[in-house]
Design a protein that fits this description.
Elements: H1 2-7, E1 11-16, E2 25-30, H2 32-38, H3 40-79, H4 87-100, E3 105-110, E4 113-118, H5 132-145, E5 150-153, E6 162-166
Antiparallel strand pairs: 1-2, 3-4, 4-6, 5-6
């Protein structure tokens, strides 16, 4: 059963060498993935409570500053894996990464305009009335692709998915340099 849990990515096995004589032993521990599954309900409670506290303490100004800083960290996570030089290339690579992470997202291109349809929210645990998740998504996409982004549809407004437009982007236009 432990081998099955290791294969599923829920348990990690490490070899521990003992001092002196004797055979080394295996030490097993739960992975981050397993802990996330075990405590998913707590996460649904804690993160929204943190955002409410931020909003109550510092209002919209503090919320926006926190989102800006968090989006910079998350954008850096994606930028480390992106090598494209144009916004279109960067967006394509970012979409592939998001899909690997389980996000339902696709890109449409129509006469120099790229449209991103995000059918699932990677920050659904933050999905509440203040739209911090939407702002976070917007900031990350804009930073990673190096081009202005406009959100034209939102699940908060009853749309089936969030839609972001990147206008005036040709496939050979260079991306804006991002420094962090």
């Amino acid at each position: 059963q432990l081998n099955e849990l290791v294969a599923a990515g829920l348990v990690e096995r490490k070899l521990q060498r003992l001092q002196g004589r004797g055979r080394p032993r295996h030490v097993y521990s739960a992975t981050t993935s397993a802990l996330l599954l075990l405590f998913a309900k707590n996460q649904r409670l804690v993160l929204p409570a943190i955002w409410r506290a931020i909003r109550e303490i510092g209002g919209a100004e503090l919320t926006e500053e926190v989102v800006r800083r968090v989006s910079a960290v998350l954008a850096q996570h994606y930028l480390q894996r992106i090598h494209g030089t144009t916004p279109a290339e960067r967006l394509s690579e970012m979409t592939a990464i998001l899909q690997e992470e389980g996000v339902l997202v696709e890109i449409e291109e129509d006469m120099g305009q790229l449209t991103v349809h995000q059918r699932s929210c990677p920050y659904i645990i933050m999905f509440e009335e203040n739209r911090a998740a939407c702002l976070l998504d917007h900031e990350i996409i804009s930073t990673v692709i190096g081009a202005p982004v406009k959100q034209v549809a939102c699940r908060h407004d009853g749309a089936p998915c969030c839609v972001f437009e990147i206008s005036g982007v040709s496939s050979d236009a260079p991306a804006t340099t991002v420094t962090m």
